Amino acid sequence: MQYVDNSISYKPVHLLQPGHADYLEELITRLETRTAVIGIIGLGYVGLPLMLRYANAGFKVTGFDIDARKVAMLNGGQSYIEHVTSRSIADARNRGFEATTDFSAASEADALIICVPTPLNAYREPDLSFIFGTVDALVPHMRKGQIMSLESTTYPGTTTEELRPRLEARGFEVGRDVFLVFSPEREDPGNQQFKTRSIPKVCGGDTPACCKAGIALYGSAIDQVVPVSSTRAAELTKLLENIHRAVNIGLVNEMKIIADRMQIDIYEVINAAATKPFGFTPYYPGPGLGGHCIPIDPFYLTWKARQYGLHTRFIELAGEINNDMPYWVVNKVINALNDRGLPLRGSKILVLGIAYKKNVDDMRESPSVTLMELLRERGAEVSYSDPHVPVFPPMREHHFDLSSIELTRESISSHDVLLLATNHSDFDYAFIQKHAKLIVDTRGVYRDSYPNVVKS
């Protein structure tokens, strides 16, 4: 393990108050010798890769999920996430991994790592019901000597203000009987360059003893651990990472609108600016923000900041720009049809790519879904093609009874517009351009000028 020294002073184990060292030393020993049992709650895009990492590191892992279908698939050696192979699940099963819906099995684990969703409610305020429900289900089965780590993105203060009282209500003394940390997830689905093991892990403890336990927990499976002074600092670190991206994407999306009005190719401008060897990082525009983090995380901080009498104008402005991008794209479609003497109502629109980014099956907060709804509301006949999403999945807020359309000469030419929303590598773009009546490109795929391509 590579340890990053942030010049944070922690008391050595032997200087902690009497009783602290007993459970802490035993837990650290079990983690370092890989005799500890790791419990991972929430087996989705974050929890499943983390489970595989601990299994590959030699730990026995128990996975918890409320979805009985997922549990049955995993116990059968099958994956339900495209970039996580069934072979890797089967290998983990051979190493002792087991999935369950029975939270009483939490008593058998030494570490409980929570990887559940943290969405927004209808008022764009934090919805921590998944965290609270998970912790409330775990606490009755917890015992002394365990560590609980929260990885779900949330506002600063959640771990200390919400999780700690729940543990204390059970009679535990945090930092002595049990250990509590926050370590934000940093998964990037489909990214082959960075794996769970190689992505540095930020970890903040509720007490110095908690931080020591957290370092041992993650240092046993992750190459580099970055300790910070508190759970609040770790929580804000995650928000800063994603707000940084959201603000810069908002900037480049606004630049795209300006460049479009000035009839300048924004991609040419970005690529030229990127040749500067210092002081510039290229970000690229799109039809909106997707994924579970970037569209949501900024609002966790804006909500919390209001409790301190602060108004996060810069962050909220970027959010407004990014949220408005699907409407801008729809107007592009309307104008492109109008130029050809066609109304949007009754037109057949084929959306190319409905995952939130290229080459994955992840549909969380996908702007493609917003585009489909806006087009449908305005009377268009909407269908989609996505090799990574063969059937439109059940979603909490969206419903389309659709399956992916195969891209043939006939299917392409039978639609009035092909709306390129997600630039999957599997698409044959030359074939699509050859047979399409009209393409609205939101991803800058068609850099050359074509009579049937409108850049959006």
Order of helices and strands: EHEHEHHEEHEHEEHEHHHHEHEHEHEE
Radius of gyration, in Å, reads: 24 Å
Relative strand content: 5-15%
Percent helix: 25-40%
Number of helix segments? 14
**CATH architecture descriptor name of the largest domain:** 3-Layer(aba) Sandwich
Give average pLDDT, whole number.
Answer: 93
Q: What structural category characterises the helix and strand content?
A: alpha/beta
CATH class of the largest domain: Alpha Beta
Quaternary organisation of the protein chains: single chain
Layout of strands and helices, then pairs:
Elements: E1 2-3, H1 20-32, E2 37-41, H2 47-56, E3 60-64, H3 68-75, H4 86-94, E4 98-100, E5 111-114, H5 129-138, E6 147-150, H6 158-169, E7 179-182, E8 201-205, H7 208-219, E9 224-228, H8 231-261, H9 266-273, H10 297-306, H11 313-338, E10 348-352, H12 367-377, E11 381-385, H13 409-413, E12 417-420, H14 429-435, E13 439-441, E14 453-455
Parallel strand pairs: 1-9, 2-3, 2-5, 3-4, 5-6, 6-7, 8-9, 10-11, 10-12, 12-13, 13-14
Antiparallel strand pairs: 7-8
Describe this structure in words.
The protein is an alpha/beta fold. The chain folds into two domains: 2-229, NAD(P)-binding Rossmann-like Domain (Rossmann fold, 3-Layer(aba) Sandwich), CATH 3.40.50; 253-455, Rossmann fold. It has 14 helices and 14 strands. The strands form two sheets. It has a nine-stranded mixed β-sheet with strand order 1-9-8-7-6-5-2-3-4, with helices on both faces. It has a five-stranded parallel β-sheet with strand order 11-10-12-13-14, with helices on one face. Residues 1-19 have low confidence and may be disordered.
